[in-house]
Amino acid sequence: MSKKTVWSVYFSATGVTEKIVKRTADAAAEKLGLPQRMFCFNSPASRREALSFGAEDLVVLGVPVYAGRVPNLLLPYVRDFIKGNGAAAVPVVTYGNRDFDDALAELCGVLEKNGFQTAAAGAFVGEHAFSRVLGAGRPDEKDLCLASDLGRRAAEKISAHDAEKMSGGSVPADDSGSSGSVRVPGRFPPGPYYTPRDRRGNPINILKARPKTDAAGCIRCGLCAVLCPLGSVDIDRVSEVTGICMKCNACVKHCPAAAKYFDDPGYLYHKKELEEIYTRRAESRIFL
Does domain 5-193+283-287 have CATH number 3.40.50.360? Predict the structure, then answer.
């Protein structure tokens, strides 16, 4: 069946994943001459809405990498609420200059289990959620050009696949042994989430770290409460984090007064270690 719509579907707390997904989808839509639709599942309310696609859809779906995997607080939504029903998919992950580990393989595997045919995939570098040094300025123009290339080449592959099916010919399998999956690095099922450690190998627990608020600098705009993907910041008392914090740093990086910050010792140690070890140019990659 020929495609009728290209979708951008993403979680993007700080805007990094959104840039890559939209650039990829724009290129695919232009190549195919198709209209686009978009669904962002940043908010708690959006993740109560099930998404169902079909064979006429091409879905570019992106998430950030947290601890080497699909974020554990997003995984139930992607796994249980997004169904492919034969749709073509281009899974995309973004990572903060360290590594994407099993995240892309996990996202591909989950989507394939949910009825998508993964035609292509990509892992792109973006500014790390914790830092303004790791992946600073990424995605840059080189990354965005690669995202466009991914979209165009995925569209070409999907068009050829659909044309072959419509002509009644056989569809050749790729080297993974399937006509509906793309081979990517990593394991599925994935390994455990990455554990931060100090230089002696001792684990660092940052689960309880919460953003703090500089009361003198805060302008009470409430943007941090609006942007919190878990609804954990009280809009009337923005200094209070009443629920789980996923360390996405949307509140820190988008605060117009720079009044949000983390002071947890373990968090700050881990951030410093990442910046010292991984401040180099990691390269984005695509898979077809």
Answer: yes
CA distance 56 to 58: 7
Within 10 Å of residue 272's Cβ, how many Cβ atoms? Answer: 13
Please write the tens of the pLDDT for every residue from 206-245: 999 999 999 999 999 999 999 999 999 999 999 999 999 9
For the chain, which residues make up each domain, given as ranges?
Answer: 5-193+283-287, 212-263
Sign of the C-alpha dihedral, residues 10, 14, 15, 20?
Answer: negative
Each residue's pLDDT tens digit, 185-212: 999 999 999 999 888 889 999 999 999 9
Q: Exposed/middle/buried for 159, CB within 10 Å: 0-12, 13-18, 19+?
A: middle
Strand partners, 40: 10
Query: In angstroms, what CA-CA distances link 168 with 1, 38, 161, 165, 210?
Result: 12, 32, 11, 5, 57
Secondary structure of 196-207 in HEC code, one letter for each residue: CECCCCCECCCC
The correct CATH number of 212-263 out of 3.40.1130.10, 3.20.20.190, 3.30.230.10, 3.30.70.20 is 3.30.70.20
Whole-number Å distance between alpha carbons of 86 and 103 = 22
Q: How far apart (Å, rounded) are the C-alpha atoms in residues 192 and 175?
A: 27
